[in-house]
Amino acid sequence: MNSSPLINRLLLPGAMAFLLLLSLAYWWLENVPHEIFGTAMFALLAYHIVVNRFWFKNLFRGRYDRRRAFVVALHLALIVNMIILLVTSVVISKSLFSALPIPDSIYLREVHWFSAYWVMIIVGIHLGLHWARVMALSRSILGLSPICAVRTLFLRIATVLLAGLGVWSFSVLGVWTKLTFTYSLDVWNFKTSVTPFFGHWAAVVALPAIVMHYAMARWRNRQRTWPTTGSQGKASGGEVAQLP
Are 163 and 208 a contacting pair, CB within 8 Å? Predict the structure, then answer.
């Protein structure tokens, strides 16, 4: 079996998400590990962009429907946030890039964290958009059958529980406050617990992924059955007309 899809479609994004998650634990890891993990994540991101360079070449080719326009807008938002995260990382660096003649900025530190939190949400939405492809690739790698009632029921129950945990985690971590650039003194106490911090943030990423996955699934189903306006439900050949 060709290992490229496994590496580029599953392991690489998973490694980037893991490094991003670790980077959020600044007050546990402290500065040097934080900067090392962040730098490693951007190195993997650069490789990811090279692997998917044809996506950028095809931006101005083909027809844009609502789904493609949304996907492109989402990717551009992720790219902009990553650029902000990269630039502010270099500017506020205390270790790896501290030798550069760049003045520090307290304001840019706030922008850095604000951008990082939004990256987590956008990464979750991005995951939800591609979840069907991820599951198909996983089934292919593991040799699982595409249809299994017991597995489907189990996954749906797990999804509901994970979504509930995500809603709770939004409250526990004060995510909405962080996303609205509102100053807060709430900081996770790593002296009392560490693992729950990562569990809560993983659930925060999972929540928009779940919402987006099912929203896109519902949209695709409606698109298959919704007749074209003015067609009266039938095309000239007697078949129901479909939206493109």
Answer: no
Sign of the dihedral defined by the CA atoms of residues 31, 112, 41, 44, in that order = negative
User: pLDDT tens digits, the chain, 244 residues: what are they?
Assistant: 555 766 777 888 889 999 999 999 998 988 999 999 999 999 999 999 888 888 888 888 888 888 889 889 999 999 999 999 999 999 999 888 888 888 877 888 889 999 999 999 999 999 998 888 888 777 777 777 777 788 888 989 999 999 999 999 999 999 988 898 776 667 888 989 999 999 999 999 999 999 999 998 888 888 777 654 444 444 434 333 333 3
Burial class (CB in 10 A: 0-12, 13-18, 19+), 238: exposed
Of 241, 233, 244, 23, whose CA–CA distance to 119 is shortest?
23
**CA–CA dist 79, 83 (Å, integer):** 6
